[in-house]
Amino acid sequence: MKQWLSETWTARAQLFFFANGIKQLVQRPRAIIITAIYWTIVLLLRWWIIKDNDTLEWAARLSNTGNAGLLIVIASAIFIVFVFALGKPKGAGQMMRDSMRAGLVNHAGETPLLMEQRIDENEVFTLVFRNFGIPLSHWNDHKEDIESGLNLNITDICERGKKYMVVTAVSGANILPNFVEWKDALLPTDNFVLGLGETYTGQVRVNLAITPHMLIGGSTGSGKSILLKCLLMQCVKKGAEVYIADFKGGVDFPRVWHEKCTFITERADLIEKLKQLITELHARKTMFSDMDYANIDEYNKQGYNRLRRIIFACDEVAELLDKTGLDKKQKDEISQIEASIATIARLGRAFGIHLILATQRPDANIISGQIKNNIDYRVCGRADDVLSQIILDKTDASDQISKSAQGRFLTNSDILFQGYWFDDSSFEGEKEYGFEYHFLGD
Questions:
Q1: How far out from the chain centre does Cα 197 lie?
Q2: Domains by residue range for the chain, with CATH
């Protein structure tokens, strides 16, 4: 049976395209009007050919009837071709062949079929494929083959029900810029949304109210630290309280950062500060429960005694969590730090306490599974296979980002973007929202 399905797939695919053409015809008012006009003209021509049949000799009558029948056959053939063309978008045949060669097929040898292709005013393509049981992970694995077959740069692949896959893309002629300078006009106005950089289709953003924690990876010179600073600057401008753990004494951050953020440079101080954040977390949890609020945004809508979001950040998380070469007391201290960070990672979202952690150390033992599994948004810049695997759970950053690239990043949802270049000297004033924040401990 599988062999028969595979051998007859090309023929059966044409039937799917024809059925899709009928579906498209029914759904498009303009196509319905054109079809109605077409068949009206055909029927009028047929009537004109046979209208004098009763007065003609039998031979002429037979000839006219034959001509009328031939007209209907030709008209039907033209209509079938029209419907078929309506249901088989440009590139669908090539996509079938490329999918088969690349192995994007199901167990019966059936490939995805391109059923619909749209382009908006920003020249962003939306491609709708009829899927035949091929999992989303398999689609992502073959993204480059799809891009090559259709000459596109894919920005997203998602499922639409069980039968369809929707691919968002731009023309293959589009390229990502190698440099995008940060400007305050790029700051998203939505609360609490941060801008990371530019994709083929516009700004890539993360909403901390929905995706509360971030992990950023990248080798030296990849632009990881600049991206981290850009995100923290936006947090400050949006009124968050930012804590930065930096055991190098904060030397990588100019004075303006020390005026707007709290730096933690000693392990003992870090343990104490994390304890305070956990205490704040539980205090907010109790209060929200007593007052029947689901999260910090609901609470802040009440208009008074608003709570600040809290950001805990680190430019090299290995400095906080690496136990190599430490004595028992020091390892116990690291364990306390790790437990506190894990608690924030697990519970922080609803209560407005967030983690933004970065690392360039390709060591799977540094970040525990308990922490990593609760950090949903992960970004990796230029990296080797090991670091890419640690950050994204796959080696795609190593494969897709050039070894010479700076500021180019890939998310764990396969979004490739150019991160904003942020200059410390442009870090000025906080964005005013017209109200005061406080902490429950104040």
A1: 13
A2: 2-87 (no CATH), 92-171 (3.30.70), 180-438 (3.40.50.300)
The set of long-range contacts for 392-396, using a CB threshold of 8 Å and a minimum separation of 24, is 392/217
What pTM was estimated for this model as a whole?
0.77
The CA distance from 229 to 257, in Å, is 9
- DSSP label at residue 352: T
Q: Which two structure tokens, joined as six digits, stand for 424?
A: 């410390």
Q: Name the maximum alpha-carbon separation found in the chain.
A: 115
> Which residue(s) pair with 119 in the sheet?
125
CA–centroid distance for 62 within its chain = 66
3-state secondary structure of 35: helix
Which is nearest to 413 in space by CA: 251, 231, 199, 259? Answer: 199
Q: Residue 276: left if φ>0, alpha if ψ -120 to 50, beta else—which one?
A: alpha
Contact assessment for residue 393 and residue 349, using Cβ atoms and an 8 Å cutoff:
no
pLDDT tens per residue, range 329-381: 999 999 999 999 999 999 999 999 999 999 988 677 888 888 889 999 999 99
Q: How far is the C-alpha of 182 from the C-alpha of 422, rounded, in Å?
A: 5
Unique residue bearing structure tokens 């904003």: 420
Measured CA to CA, the distance from residue 233 to residue 240 in angstroms comes to 10
CA distances from 223 to 120, 227, 366 (A): 32, 6, 21
- Say how far apart CA 427 and CA 318 lie, in whole Å: 27
Strand duo 262-264 + 241-245: pairing: parallel
What are the pLDDT digits (tens) for 221-251? 899 999 999 999 999 999 999 999 998 777 8
